[in-house]
Amino acid sequence: MGPVCRPQDSSLKRDFALWALSHKETTMSEFLLDVGLAQKLKQAFGRNGWDLAEIDKLCEGDTLARVRAYLKNGVATLVQAATAVFTFAAGDKRSAKELLSAGKYDWIGNYARQFVEGKKFRLADKPEEVDMVLVEFGHDPTSDEVLAEFARQGLERPTEEDALRFGEKYPDEQKKYPIVFLHEPWQDPHGDRRGLVLGWRGRERELDYDWFDGRWFRYCRFAARRSRK
What we know:
By secondary structure, the chain is α+β, with helices and mostly antiparallel strands. The protein has seven helices and twelve strands. Helix content is 28%, strand content 23%.
């Protein structure tokens, strides 16, 4: 599995123009950016911490069209509504080690194993049926953004047990995209907060433990509980 989380970004490295957002009728041959508008955009990008790599991403594909739609319609246009529901049972008294083994992963990260086999890994104390959905973003979100979107959709954050249950019952799903579980984060020996991630590396199913802070790549899916109430 490639990286699914990247660190905080550096300072702005170049100017960029969004003038075409409000001038879609203007052809490329007519496109001109005056110095004043360029300076205004530079200040806006710098004020919000954009770097060169992020500006490059903004130029890709239909990203600008989706940003324009966001300005018109709100955040929902940047988030793919969760539709498919994944159901599994929890709280069957199996231990964390037994659940880890049942997942039949080809590779398990050291920190992921430390967390699952440690004392801070929580298990449900009674049987329950869990409905889980996967939320997709059209940009690279932070964990806080993801959790805020869960709240907006009336979803609940997952538990660490959910990650193992999901991996056991739906082993092929992680072959399509990394699945991030934003349960209560665990601090690794270096003090970094981390969360469980189901991933795929070529021919190997993986259980890893990635950084909770920073940003997640947009190709990830974020597991959330759907209330049965």
